Amino acid sequence: MTEDSKVIERVLDGDSEAFNLLIRQWERPIYNFIVRMIGDRNEAMDLSQDCFMKAYRELHTLKDHHRFSSWLYRIAHNACLSQIRKNHGKTWVELDPELGAAESRPEDRLAVEKALGQLPPDQREAVILKVFQSLKFEEIAAIQDAPISTVKSRLYMGFEKLRAILG
Amino acid sequence: MAHLADKLADFFYEELPSAEMSEARRHLETCKECRFEVEQFERIHLTLRTVPELDPPRRVVFAPPERRSWLSWFEWRSAAAASAFAALLAGIVIGFSHVDYNRIVSEVHQADRAWLAVELNKRDEEIQRLRGELAYYENFQRTVMRETLENGSAIQLLAQRTISRR
Predict the structure, then answer these.
(1) B29 to chain A, minimum CA–CA distance in Å?
(2) A112–B48 C-beta distance less than 8 A
(3) Distance between CA atoms of B158 and B151, rounded to whole angstroms?
(4) Which CATH number fits domain A94-167: 2.40.100.10, 1.10.3720.10, 1.10.10.10, 3.40.605.10?
(5) Is CATH 1.10.1740.10 correct for A1-93?
(6) In 3D, which of A47, A136, A144, A126 has the Cα closest to residue B10?
(7) What ipTM describes this predicted complex?
(8) How confident is the model at residue B137 (pLDDT cuts 50, 70, 90)?
(9) Does the pTM exceed 0.80?
(10) For residue B145, is pLDDT > 50?
(11) Touching check for B50 and chain A: CB below 8 Å?
């Protein structure tokens, strides 16, 4: 049994406080996924908060407790798509170049983030989940509710466009 | 083996079965074209990876809703028991009286009580939910205040250092 599934059983048995353990485990990856999807740090934080609240409310509907992370990413996926639809027409917000690790040049990081922002949401998501979140194709397919072959096509197309943009 | 083609990503992320992974490695030793494709793929992957992970600006705040107390449970049970007793009493009265009018009134009352019990239960649940939300917002407010104080102290410290360097 995975650590997540043990904690989920505790929460479902009435130990609601244990849900904080799941938050501590997943808040950073979920936040990073959302911020890369929508490009706005503050909106991403609010959406992360909403995702965990929704996950808590709907935890009893999760059938396979071993798939908590995919299920949580699926909630985040829905939140991102809804936000992207809401923000349609808004300019991609570039992240603060001074934030984060210092091993890459700020201008390079900005170029990459801007390039990511130019991909269609489904391709951007496939790239983010594979490259940054290191998920398996099978997990990404579950999150995107698409066949594995479609996920791979999105990744290839995303990489192609990034290659063209970044040179 | 044929070219990697649509198996390139599976190979790069090591999601091919081990036998196919070995076969793909052997193929790459001799196939310049596939090697080039893998290198291009790796280049984009590594370029993307230069973007660092971000720290969330604050923690996700969660305050679980309070559990229903034994007192409210007892009250609810008492109300239900009282309703059942009243219904039983009404049934006995009707049984003896054989008056249709009384039976109809009693049935209406029973239906009213059942409806009221359900409504009271809904109200209790709503109160519990609102208490949970209130606790969550109070917790959130405390976190924001604490972070504000921490940030204030850090700014003060930085200002002092800057002044002392001058």
Answers:
(1) 23
(2) yes
(3) 10
(4) 1.10.10.10
(5) yes
(6) A136
(7) 0.86
(8) confident
(9) no
(10) yes
(11) yes
